[in-house]
Amino acid sequence: MCENFWRSAGTTLYGDAFFGGNDGGWNDGGGGYNSGVEEFLLENIFWVALAAVSAGGAAWTTLRAAAAALEPPGAALFAKQTGAVFLDVRPADEFAVGHIAGAKNIPAAELAEKLERIGKYKEKGVVLVCGDGAQSKRSVSALAAGGFVSSRLRVLAGGMAAWRDAQLPLSKGRRG
């Protein structure tokens, strides 16, 4: 009935894709719904391809910005072997209470505008550190957008809480 209403009005609700052209059926073997979808895809191949490429680009950007998480001993070894820097993204007052020796401190909120402070580590590597690992994961994309080599970015799994639990050495004060 709905089909007849739209046909009598001189059009179909969504063109002939849903009503199967002149055969009058949805899926009766004479064109139906499936061929209408195929026809739509073929007629709009440019837009379909553009949507697919855009979705793929978004997925690639997300995956590219992902960094491997390292447990504290592995993070220390990575930094020693590659010359990477520990970048603590916690606020300065938390950093002053206790941080990894030699770590640089750039709070996550200031990261995008202060990346030049650690520019020399773009190729060597960066291990991101925060309280529990969550903020570090979110900060990876800022470094990747700033030109840091994504294969050289790491996150300290569990953050400073895990570092303390592993009883690894801490420094105190605001230097960094």
- Global outline: elongated
Query: In CATH terms, what is the architecture of the largest domain?
Result: 3-Layer(aba) Sandwich
Query: What is the percent of helical residues?
Result: 40-55%
Low-confidence runs: 8-14, 16-20, 23-28
Distance between the termini: 74 Å
Number of helices: 7
Computed Rg: 27 Å
Q: Would you report the number of β strands?
A: 6
| CATH class designation of the largest domain | Alpha Beta
Structure class: alpha/beta
Number of domains: 2
Mean pLDDT: 79
CATH topology of the largest domain: Oxidized Rhodanese, domain 1
Short overview:
The chain is an alpha/beta fold and 176 residues long. The chain contains seven helices and six strands, in the order αβααβαβαββαβα.
Helix/strand layout:
Layout: H1 2-8, E1 13-16, H2 32-43, H3 45-64, E2 68-70, H4 72-82, E3 85-88, H5 92-97, E4 104-105, E5 126-129, H6 134-145, E6 153-156, H7 159-165
Parallel strand pairs: 2-6, 3-4, 3-5, 5-6
Task: Pick out its properties.
single chain, 176 residues, alpha/beta, Oxidized Rhodanese, domain 1, 2 domains, five-stranded parallel beta sheet, 7 helices, 6 strands, elongated
What features would you describe in this structure?
- The chain is of the alpha/beta class.
- It has two domains: 60 residues, no CATH class; 101 residues, 3-Layer(aba) Sandwich (Oxidized Rhodanese, domain 1).
- It is 43% helix and 12% strand.
- The protein has a five-stranded parallel beta sheet with strand order 2-6-5-3-4.
- It is elongated and about 70 Å long.
